[in-house]
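#dry-run=false #mode=assembly
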Amino acid sequence: MLYTIGDVSEKTGLPAPTLRYYDKEGLLPFVNRGNGGIRKFQDTDLEWLRLIECLKASGLQIKDIKRYIDLFIQGDTTIQERRKMFYDQKECVEEDIKALQNTLDMLTYKCWFYDMALELGSVEAVKNLPDSEIPEKIRKLKAKINRMHVSSCQKKSIVKAG
Amino acid sequence: MLYTIGDVSEKTGLPAPTLRYYDKEGLLPFVNRGNGGIRKFQDTDLEWLRLIECLKASGLQIKDIKRYIDLFIQGDTTIQERRKMFYDQKECVEEDIKALQNTLDMLTYKCWFYDMALELGSVEAVKNLPDSEIPEKIRKLKAKINRMHVSSCQKKSIVKAG
DNA sequence: GTTTCCCTTAAAGTTAACTTTAAATTTTAA
DNA sequence: TTAAAATTTAAAGTTAACTTTAAGGGAAAC
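#status=ok
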């Protein structure tokens, strides 16, 4: 099964110029061309795109993903380096998830806060609520948030891959 | 307790020029100035910075955060809009966490794959492994990944906040 | 056949969030 | 009192990842 760039764009949701940009940056070295120089994508190319999007989501930059593809092309001598790349990225993503969970705690607290503000008619009224009126769950959240530092909601993703 | 911009930079890890940039963009309207025009941060300003970093981590842009601060300054008439903002962002972050968990599944699989490749000496050997040699956990992961679309590891964070 | 898509490239433009620079002023330490 | 360190501003520069534009070529619908 062969696909044009338009087919792939529709299948993946990535704009065709983005796919051409990825190709230009060396992220799609396996995509063949037809007579008139027209790209013919295969199912394996769609799998590559899925991996590329995953690596991007994990915080890797285009040039780092190209680095991985270059290593792949070099073959089995680069297994160690590729392995390290995935372990490093896994660690980054685990930290990102933790950071996002802190962010989610803050947002959950704020959602409760503004639910109450809407109910009581003012922000001040919520601030003046006695502790006994605040659900246990929210009190714990508030305490956790107060222990947080600025850096606990920041991402660590950017790492020199290699 | 009052802090200079240098103190705050050290406390938060944010470079002083970044703090000035936030101020210029209207994110720090509560920071007072001394005689010579020098910023005097208070503990409440540090709390604002913590909220700002959380909102940034949730995917909000600077201008959206400014919008929130403007709404805050306007007072209780904007409670509904602020509430909606937090609910929208909460939803975004929940989706981001799900996407990152898909990314993590892919990376976990790849880590196993390259552990095996290192052990067996080649990528091909891992591809040729009979199903019976693949741990149940990894087989499930592989099946899950095969069901994934490109979009399942993409972030949804960017939303017109309002 | 021709018109209309869809494809191609190269190159310029966009955007957000800083970051750097330069020049001036203020504060702090000796 | 003076020198060093930190602060101020405005403005220009940077970076990544696209996105848009322009100019052209080949295949399918009518």
